[in-house]
Amino acid sequence: MTIDTAAALARLRGLHRDGALAERFDEVGPLLAAMSAEDAARAARLLARADLDTARELHPSLPAVRVTVTGHGTLEALRVALVGELARHGYVPSVRLTGFGSYVFELGDPGSELYAERPDLAVCVLDHATVFDEVSVPFTAEDVERVLAGKIALWRGLAARYGESGSGTLVLNTVPLPRLWQARLLDHRSRARLGAAWRRANAELLELGASADRVVVVDVDPLLSSATELSDPRFEIYAGAHLSDALLGAYARELGHLVRARTGRAKKVLALDLDGTLWGGILGDDGVEGIEVGHGPRGEAFRRFQGVAKQLASQGVLLAVVSKNDRDTVLAALRDHPGMLLREDDFVRILADWSPKPVHLRALAEGLNLGGDSVVFADDSVHECAAVAAGVPETVVVHLGGDPALHATTLLADGWFTTTEVTAEDRARTRRYHEEAARSEFLAAAGSAEEFLAGLDVSVRLAPAEPGETARLSQITLRTNQFNLTTERLSPEEVRERAERPGCRVLAISAADRFGSNGLVGALFLRARPDGLVVDNFLLSCRVFARGIEQAVLSAVLHAARDAGFAAVHGRYQPTAKNGKVRDLYPHYGFTPVEEGSRFVHDLVEIVGVPAHLTLHVEGRVVPEASPEALTI
C-alpha cells in the first residue's frame, strides 16, 4: 500500500534489467503484493526467466518450494503464473514442467524424473481433452461415459501410486465440460446424460481428494466466471492449450494458497475496522440506532459480510476489532443493535479508542502472543490501510473499498486463512482465548507468579498420539513457530507415518486448568537409535507458555528413557527468526551442548522433576524400548 502498482512494476523491471533479481529477491514479494493483477502477470513473466537457483542460495532464510507440473496439454502459462504467485507469497519458487502429455508416464513410473526430484507439490492438470481425445467421432453420451469410467480408474491408480512412492502433495483438479462438446449432441436427453456422467466423474475426483492421503483435488468450477473462459478454440487447436491462460492463472492462485497452508503460513487473526467495514455510517456521529446493518440493501450487505467473518471464526480464525471509536459505544452496538450478526463474544480483542491503528495492531499481536505476520487487517479506508502497511509491514492489509457487497469477495480472494484441515481445536479456539483472558485477569489479581501457578491447578496429559489426533498434531507442526525446536513441518500423513514407524513415538501433550481445557497443545517426536533416544522435535502452543508444562514433559520423557534402558537422550535446536525463545531450553534442563549449540545430550544421571504446582498424567508407553528391534531403524 505504500507504493503504487506502476512504481512497483518499474522497480522490479529495474532489478531484472540490472541482473539484480536474485540478489534482491527479498524485495520481490512486497513489490508483487503492491501490483495490480495485470502488472503482477507482467512481472511473473520476468520472474519465470530469472535465475531463481541463485536466489535460493543467496537468501537461505526465505522459504523455498519445489513444484513439478505435468498434464495433458500446454501448461507454460500455469508455470509462469505459479512462479509469480509463489514469489508474491514470499517463497523462492522452483517450478518445472514435464514433457507435453507425459503425465501418465511421470506419475505411473516411480523411476521417472518427477519422482526423482521429490517436489513439495506435484500438480497434474486434467482437462477435457484427456477424455475427448479418446472418444471416437461420431459419438454418443454413452461413449463418453465409458471413456470417463476408464479415466477415473486411471487417475485413481496414479494417485495411489504417488501415495506409495511420491513425496509431498499430489494436486489434481476437476475437469470442466466445454459447451462446445455438449452442443454437438442435439437432443436434450443426450446432453443431460452427458452432463450427469461428467458430474459423477468430477464428484469421484472430489471424493478422492477428501479420502486419499497426500492428494488434493482443486474444484475448477468456482474459478470459472463470465470473465474467465474455459478455453480458447484457437489456442486449443493450434497450440494444444486446452485451458485458457486466465483459468490457469486462477489455478495458480489456488495453488499459492495451498502451498502457504501446507508450509504453516496460514494467517490466524482477522482484525476488522468497524465504520464502513462491519456496518454503514459513522458510529460516533449516527449513534447505535443510526448505523446501517441488517436493514435495507446496504445494511443487508454489511450483515452478510459479518456472516462471512463469523463463518471464519467458527473454523479457528480469531476475530478482533481495531477501530477509532469510543469503546463503550462500540460495545453497546455489538451488544444491542438488533441487526448485528457479530456480537462481543465473537471477538477475542476489541481495541477501540483514538490511538493509531498500527499501534493497536502491534499490541494485538503481542497480546495474543503471535507475530504481526499472523494478522490480516481489513479496512475500508485507503488512508488507514496505507498507515498500517507502513507501520506494520509484516501484517497483510486488505483494502475493502466502498461497496459492502464486495467486501467478502475482496477478503477471501487470497485465501489467507486456508488450512489443511479444520480440527476440533480450531472450532474451540475463540472460546479458549476467552478463557485465556480469564487467566490473565487471575494472574493480575495474584500476588506473584508462584501464587498464580499454584492457584491455576494445571493438569497435563502425556500419551502416545491417537489416530484421531493426527490432524491436530500436523497443525501444531505447521502453525507453531515460537516453541518449535526445529520448525519441521509435517502433513497429517507424515505424522501418522512417524507414529507407526518401528522404534518411534509421537507424543501428544494436552493441558487443562481451573478455567477449562486447553486441548491438545503440544507434541514430541521421538526416535530410538544405537546411542540413545532422539528428540526429533518438541513443540508447544504459545497459549500455554510459562506454566511449567515443558519441564514436566521433559522430566517424564527422561525418566522413561532411563527406565527403558537408553544410555542418553539427544536433542537438536535449529534456530529460526521466531524460535529464539527456546534457544536455551535443553541446557536449562540438564542437557550438554555437543555441536556448537545446535545439538545436545542428556546423560540421564540428574533429571529435573515435575513442577510442584502441576499434575502430570502419563499414559501408555511414551518411549520405545532400547531393544535391538528399536535400534535398527
Write up this protein.
- By secondary structure, the chain is an alpha/beta fold.
- Helices cover 43% and strands 17% of the residues.
- It has 26 helices and 18 strands.
- Strands 16-17-15-14-13-12-11-18 form an eight-stranded mixed β-sheet, sandwiched between helices. A five-stranded parallel β-sheet has the order 2-1-3-4-5, sandwiched between helices.
- α5 crosses α13, α9 runs parallel beside α11 (188-211) and α17 (357-367) packs across α18.
- The protein is globular.
- It starts with a helix and ends in a 15-residue tail after the last strand.
Fold topology:
Elements lengths: L4 H13 L10 H6 L3 H11 L4 H7 L5 E8 L4 H13 L3 E6 L5 H6 L4 H4 L4 E5 L3 H4 L8 H25 L3 E5 L5 H4 L5 H24 L3 E4 L14 H7 L5 H18 L6 E4 L10 H8 L5 H19 L3 E7 L2 H10 L10 E7 L3 H11 L7 E5 L2 H10 L4 E4 L7 H6 L11 H4 L1 H17 L3 H8 L1 E7 L5 H10 L12 H9 L3 E10 L2 E14 L2 E9 L8 H16 L4 E4 L12 H4 L3 E2 L5 E4 L11 E5 L15
Parallel strand pairs: 1-2, 1-3, 3-4, 4-5, 6-7, 6-9, 7-8, 9-10, 11-18, 14-15
Antiparallel strand pairs: 11-12, 12-13, 13-14, 15-17, 16-17
